[in-house]
Amino acid sequence: MIKVRIENNAEVRKFFEELGVDFDKAVNIAMNDTSDKMATDANQNLSNSIGVNSDLFGSVVSDNNKPFKKYIGTKIEYAPYVEFGTGPQRINKKGKEVGGKQYWPPPLASKRATQYSKNAGEMEKWRKMKGGKFKTHDDLRYAIWKHGTRPQSFMRSSLQKNKRKFPEYLGRALAEMLGVSFQKR
Questions:
Q1: Between the chain's N and C termini, which has fewer beta carbons within 10 Å?
Q2: How far apart are CA 103 and CA 114, in angstroms?
Q3: CA 150 – CA 144 distance, rounded (Å)
């Protein structure tokens, strides 16, 4: 979660009122632009790291419906495993290695259909798509259990890179409200 604190005392409010600018509206516009840029960049990172054939590609969206609260995320269940990795290669939200719990990925044939055995079919599709590295489904299961999956941070890098864009977008929104051209210094 990224929090932005804007000091906006009575003196600042008076200054923007004299200019004829709705500062709150400009902040909300800048937040919308920033969250949209973060979501677009996260999708671009996904296309570079995992490819466009994944369900995850294009799934990162920004929700700008609430004023001053913006949400960026995806509804794909396995997105955290791609972002942070699994097993021994797992990292925490700050980027430090923490070595997650090892578990056996689901087998293809299961007597009881569980959520995990349903995911085995998705793993099998992925294994076939990737080609010859994993000859059988059990080879893939062993590799995941033994080594885990490496983190492919698509969201964190986008958030870190684009959070610095907020002041620029705020300046652009204020300049547009004043009817002047924006000049980046």
A1: C
A2: 16
A3: 10
Q: Note the pTM of the prediction, 2 decimals.
A: 0.69
Q: Cα separation of 129 and 14, whole Å?
A: 61
Q: Encoding tokens for residue 31?
A: 């937040």
Give the C-alpha distances (Å, rounded to integers) separating 132 from 47, 48, 118, 140: 22, 21, 23, 11
Contact 57, 47 (CB under 8 A): yes
Residue 23: which of 38, 13, 31 has the closest Cα?
13
For the chain, how many residues are written? 185
Label residue 81 by pLDDT band (50, 70, 90): confident
pLDDT in tens, 30-78: 999 999 999 999 988 888 777 655 778 788 888 888 888 888 888 888 8
- H/E segment holding residue 139: helix 137-147
- Paired tokens of 156: 């964190």
Angle (nearest 5°) at CA 130 between 114 and 116: 10
Mean pLDDT of the chain: 80
